[in-house]
Structure formats: C-alpha cells, structure tokens
Design goal:
Strand order of the largest sheet: 4-5-6-8-7
Strand content: over 45%
Number of helices: 0
Shape: globular
Oligomer: single chain
Helix content: under 10%
Largest sheet: 5 strands, mixed, barrel
Number of strands: 12
Order of helices and strands: EEEEEEEEEEEE
Structural class: mainly beta
Number of domains: 2
C-alpha cells in the first residue's frame, strides 16, 4: 500500500492510499515502474528535452543547457545518441523518477532517480515492424502499437 498525490493545500500535499509503488517525499510523488522502451526523443540536443517513452509514459532524461544546474538521476546505460536509438527500442527498463503528471516523469531533482536496462533473457519485448518491417523470431509475433502503415511494436510469445 502506498500514497497517491491528489492535490495541494497551503503548501502541503494531500494523498490517499493506493496499491502501487508510488511514494510521496518532500512534496514530490515518486514512482518506480518497469516497462518497454517504445521511443526515444532527442530534442535536448537543441535546447529542448530528451525523453524515453515507456509504453504510454514519458521520462525526461535530458534537458538543453540551463543557467542553474539541478541534481539529476542516472540513465547512463542508455546513450542519448540518435544513431543508437534502434538498439534500445523494445528493451525492458526499470524506472524510479518523480511524477510530473499522469504520464510524465523526470529523473531531475534527485540523484537517486534512474532509468536502467533490465537483463532480457528471451525475445519478449524486442522491437519489430516499423518501416523496415523487422520480423520477430520463430514462436513470437509482433504486437503493434497502432493500426497504420509502418507501425512498430514489440515481439510477444505466441
């Protein structure tokens, strides 16, 4: 049983019990979750933000230059290099981050936040489809993330 943020009043945050891994500390909702990388955005190279998309959730892992640096967690085992993007799509990760809204998180604010790759011993979660038409290994099928030309997905056991 954990706490879920529901609003603020006079500088204090109100919370209710929730059966998830959400925790409220120092007026921030922190959450730990796992999922599969479905996209990586590299806009922080141009004074924007870099995000890793994990299912329907977005985790901010990089920002353009800022005059006031802030503490940042670790995502060092996922390189923010657009040329290596496809090597991370479909990989399973564990995230511990501050929740900003319903589907946005950040590893900024505390050094204990992280996004880390998990060991993957099977073909489950590997990237498939896309404009290159990448196929899954025998015994797996591609679970697409949409019904449109060049849709991508992840491999799941038949």
């Amino acid at each position: 049983m954990a706490l879920l943020f529901i609003g603020s009043f006079g500088g204090f945050y109100l919370a209710k019990r929730q059966t998830s891994s959400q925790i409220i500390t120092n007026k921030a909702v922190e959450e730990k979750f796992t999922g599969t990388i479905t996209d990586i955005n590299y806009q922080c190279q141009a004074d924007g933000i870099c995000t890793i998309q994990i299912g329907e959730k977005y985790v901010i892992v990089g920002k353009g230059e800022s005059p006031t640096p802030e503490p940042k967690g670790n995502s060092s085992n996922i390189e923010l290099d657009e040329n290596k993007k496809n090597s991370y799509l479909g990989k399973k990760v564990e995230v511990f981050a501050q929740k900003i809204d319903n589907n946005t998180y950040t590893i900024y604010g505390k050094t204990k936040y992280y996004v880390k790759l998990l060991n993957q011993k099977s073909e489950d979660g590997k990237f498939c489809g896309g404009f290159a038409g990448i196929e899954c290994p025998v015994g797996y099928l591609c679970k697409y993330d949409g019904n449109y030309p060049d849709a991508s997905g992840i491999c799941v056991k038949k």
